[in-house]
Amino acid sequence: MEIAERRPLPLRLRRFRAGSLVPIVMLLAVLLVLIAVRQPNFLAPPSLLSFLGRSTPIILLAAGQYFVIVSGEFDLSVGSLVTAQVVVAARLIDSEPSRTWPVVALLLTFGILVGLINGLVTTRLRVPSFITTLGMFLILVGAVYLWSDGAPKGGLSEEFRRFGRRAFEDVPGLGRVQYALLVLLAVATAAVLLSRSDFGRTLVAVGGNPRTAELSGVRVWRAKTIAFVLSGLAAALAAILLGGYSGVSFQAGAGLEFAAITAVVLGGVALGGGRGSVFGAMLGALTLEMLFALLNFYGVSGALKSTVQGAIILLAVAVSSVRSTSR
Amino acid sequence: MSSALSMPARRASPGVFVALVLTLAIGWLVVAIDGGQLFSVPTTVSLLHVAAGLGLVAVGQTLVVIGGSLDLSVAYVISLSTLVAAETMGGDDAALLPGIGLALAVSAGIGLCNGLLVTKVKINPFIATVGVGLLLKGYLDNGYDGPAGRTAPALVQTLGYQRIGPVPLSFLLLLGVAGAAWFALARTRFGHHLIAVGGDPEVARLSGVRNSRVLVTAHVLCSLCAGLAGIYLASRLGSGAPRVGTEGLYDLESIAAVVLGGTALAGGIGGVAGTVGGVLLLAGIDAIFNQLEVDAFFKQVIRGVIIIAAVAVYAQRVRGRAAP
Questions:
Q1: Given B80, B160, B292, B304, which residue has the most CB atoms within 10 angstroms?
Q2: Do B135 and A307 touch (CB under 8 A)?
Q3: pLDDT tens per residue across span B121-152
Q4: In terms of Cα–Cα distance, which of B181, B174, B216, B223 is closest to B75?
Q5: Cα distance from B69 to chain A (closest Cα, Å)?
Q6: Which CATH number fits domain B2-322: 3.30.70, 1.20.1640, 3.30.160, 1.10.3470?
């Protein structure tokens, strides 16, 4: 890291060595084998595709969280943002099909707005991001309960739900291809392109050393704010899919922020910023979902999810910190 | 920053006390106009009870924050402590002391774990304590659906509900713990070392301070305080409650109280007296809202805004001071 900062073309070098995808791909392969042993038909294209569709929301959140984490911050508000979005959508649509598209547009705007506030409060008012986003968590959860008097109201239209539910039937060779997979493909492509663009590289530089970035002419606050906006946008997309897939409840987004952070860490992104790839983060989300599927197949209680996430975060960070101190 | 070495521990900003007096005065007026009475005995008692629970956690949090660290696992430690205490006691006065002892021992163990992760494995304190918190959350989610165990009646009657005039025993306990923490910070070697480590770890190390040992001690003390808060909550509720810590937002609120009290999140500056002021301020706002019968969810929105705003105000102040 220190050597890299002194050299003129560090970003490219760093991207190839650190944040390597090898560990996460190996882990994914091991999990696939373990699942195949227990549940051989899981690997058939239809069930694998439907698994991928179910995992799409968390993969989107991981991609959004990647941009925030690689810039050196955290976004702990995404879970509550997803909940708020789903509840708001249900109340506004109120089972009225014609309101679907305006509400979708509103949700995306809402996500961007929350991200913008998170970003500006963190960068301009210098509030540590975990406090900003945890505060935002309280505000969103409180506001959405307040607005709906303690119980979700209204309902989603079938048009809204199809994003998370419906699929192209009978695609040759694959069977059912969910709409969610198209969203996934589009977002994944956009995220990878964005992370390789000038902006993506700037963001990594900002996370690696904000001072150096600032001195080399980067507007750190703007880069970080955009990262928060991307995370808010990802949460909006995830909420649209989740609302369709699992319906309206105050638990819709519970715990998703920690799942996203765990996924990003699993994907080899350094907490604290400056290292990692968005593709790794998304693979991390897939790995995490696969791990939960595996635990489920082996009859481990879903209530232990948090413990698994906590253990992964501590292990991953411990390994990388031990490695970096021994270097 | 090396001047932190000679800085007295209790540089609590008087700002919080001014804010406290103003808030209570305005609150008293608004409540009076609304036809209520802010300082009646029942409201005062409940205000002090709220302050006692939050205060115990916040005093511990002050120690780790001054040391430049942070503890976000306190909410889960509190929940776990209520359960360990209540289940060990099982409603039996004879098991009172073992229950308290075991709850404190478990809490101290978690604090030790936090401290070692932060100092020896060198994990960022935010991540380390969130990670430990998630481990505990999984254990609680998996093992408990609702209240469990029964607190010893003797504890409920004393720590839970006994009071001297309008002052609950639990608030006196808070004052005792805060006094001890003040003494530790201002008058002992540990306190001076802690402030030095928080101010500038490298300078502290070069001056012969054993940074890890000091920080681990602070983490153990912080968890002990959270454990004590758990025992107090068990005495109020009469049983162990697996979600009381998270629902009470003790993690965020304790940090907010610490920041309101003038302790810098970066470490090295601050004190316990300010934290107690911050706790009373938050408890006062809570009491005013209760008197005005503000919706619980609206209260939560306001809490979020207050926490962010408080930290923002202090961040501006620090920036002003540090400006070249």
A1: B80
A2: yes
A3: 988 898 899 999 999 999 999 999 999 999 99
A4: B223
A5: 13
A6: 1.10.3470
What number is the ipTM of this complex?
A: 0.82
Q: Judge: A128–B305 Cβ closer than 8 Å, yes or no.
A: no
Task: Give, in words, the CATH class of A2-326.
Answer: mainly alpha
pLDDT in tens, B69-108: 999 999 999 999 999 999 999 999 999 999 999 999 999 9
Our CA angle for B89, B94, B99, nearest 5°, is: 35
Q: Which of A256, A269, A314 has the highest number of chain B CBs within 10 A, making it the mutation to test binding with B?
A: A314
Residue B163 pairs in a beta bridge with B168
Which residue in the block uniquely carries the two structure tokens 């150096």? A212
- Answer whether A301 sits within 8 Å of B142, measured CB to CB: yes
pTM of the shown model: 0.87
Chain A residues lying within 8 Å of B130, measured CB to CB: 258, 310, 313
Tokens representing A93? 């649509």
DSSP letter at B2 equals: G
For the stretch B184-221, what's the b/e string if a residue is b when 16 or more beta carbons lie within 10 angstroms of its beta carbon? bbbeeebbbbbbbbbbbbeebeeeebebbebbbbbbbb
- Considering only CB atoms, A131 lies closest to which of B133, B137, B307, namely B307
Put simply, the answer to whether B134 touches A121 (Cβ < 8 Å) is no
